[in-house]
Fold these 2 entries.
Entry 1:
Amino acid sequence: MINDTSKQASQDAIEWALTHGMALKTTDYSAVHTAFSLTPTPITTARYQKLTASVGLLGKLVHFASEDCEFLTQAIEPITKGDPFFHALLEMYQAIHQTNQQPIQQLTQQAAQSAKRLPLLIMRSDFMDDAALGPKLIEFNGIAAGMGPFGQRIHELHKFLQLQALEAFSEWSTPATGKLVANRALENLAQGVAKATFKINAEFAAVKPDASVLAPIDSTTNAPTFLMVVQAGEDNVYDQHLLEHALQAKGIRTIRRTFRELYGKLKTGDNHRLLLDGVGAIDTVYLRAGYQYCDYHANDIISRVCCDALMQTRIFIEKHRVAVNASVSQQLATSKRVQMLLSSMEPAALTRFGLTLDEAIAVKELLGEMIAVTKDSAAIVANSSNNDWVLKNQGEGGGHCIFGDDILPKLAELKPSEYQAWALMRRLHPTARATTALTVRKGELQQVDDLISEIGMFTVHIDGEAAIEDENSQKQAYAGYLIRSKSARSTEGGVHSGMGVLDSLVFSNK
């Protein structure tokens, strides 16, 4: 029941959210709080420990897959006829690594020699905790692994409410819950980015920049510098700014640019140093754009092919000695196509990607069932329960999954040349919260009696090595989590573009 106590707690939470940057931009001068759950979702200690112990292996797997040029080329080529964007991505990949003229057996060696960038893999692996199967991977997110800062903030908000509004917090919490599950995603992601940034900066410490392409030298010119490539008119800026503020606190200068703003402004310094006019040397490039064609649109640039000019800008970046997340190879390796291929491999085959057999077995347990779309897919779906499958294309973000009665009509529309760009994934059915949850969206309170959660686990690798140090100074890849919850009746669970809400975790005593 939504009473005055609940209303006061939600108002306190809204003000806390706005105070701490947990918001989305609405105009140039205003913002609205992100949607959130008033109380956290429970998870068993065993489930949580299994995920944190194993998720780093997924990052390791994806890194080695992204650096395996032969595998990546063979994996992506079949979908290029049915997906023009991935055709363009593969061409970008070949231009970066100079592989388009090489025999297939020489690709990996050639790619290793031609690539100058330092791979910084910041990945979010999204899971659903199926009632029968346990946690299973939904998708990898490499180029859009955002909302880590919001993940930490909503944990902190729930910690605040537990102290400040205990009566309402207890009323809307699931019985038999224990301690809140700590989340240091913002701090750890900043730590990983800073480590890569300082590594590149140190490599060039003795190299003087080419002053002819720089702004006048001042005390900040040689500061370690982080460049975030963003979308024009982005409304999800506060999550990004929280990461920037954490980096600034570590002595790192942060710059924001769109691909269009970078066009014609990047230069080459000594030893393949990446330079930006008016700024100086760049140590790390972090892409929050580039995963759809519209990020490369520039109608004011005369180019032989739409988007080619700004794609050339991305190619130019990777040909320099700079830490990059996400590289084009990482974007390809985190695609649904590669996920499907990896999920269908036996553990022994997965050892190709830097894993021991025991590690490959642990990874295999996390990978959900995916199958390629073929001429027989319609029959498979027709002979299954209506909720057994999800049809997915290669797109990232919301709006790229097809459910239920809409699957068969879509399959009928597809041309055979488009089959490989689509996949069927076994649908997961997590258990809803045992009690009604209270969510807050744009100041409005809503009771949800079937709240389910998607669990995003962040990992950070630098050139394949785990990049996070825990409180005991032990290296690990796991960096924190992001929980997005929604009604089981909703198919779009994104906080930014769907009907999801930010959430956090609490240990279940059961």
Entry 2:
Amino acid sequence: MFYEIRRYQTQPGRRDEWVRYMEEAVIPFQIEQGMTVTASFVDEEDPDGYVWIRRFEDEQERLALYANVYESRRWRDEFDPKVKSLLLVDQIKVTRVAPTPISALR
């Protein structure tokens, strides 16, 4: 099992709008497609920072779920344009991590 920690920068001053969109549209859609969204955070030290975490059982599952989400017509037509309008997409940072033996997230 592993996690993706995804760090985003919103367009300046648009984080609240982004959080609403994530919680009302993006996260529910991804969960419907089989994603496990573990957490969603706003950065207390950066007014435009947002972090979320997804969990995958293995690389095969990640690839299948990425295809379900990002290759879907709905993602391309509805979500992708909105995401690109709210985020600084060139600043997206994804860190892949695996829990240690005593981690509560195992």
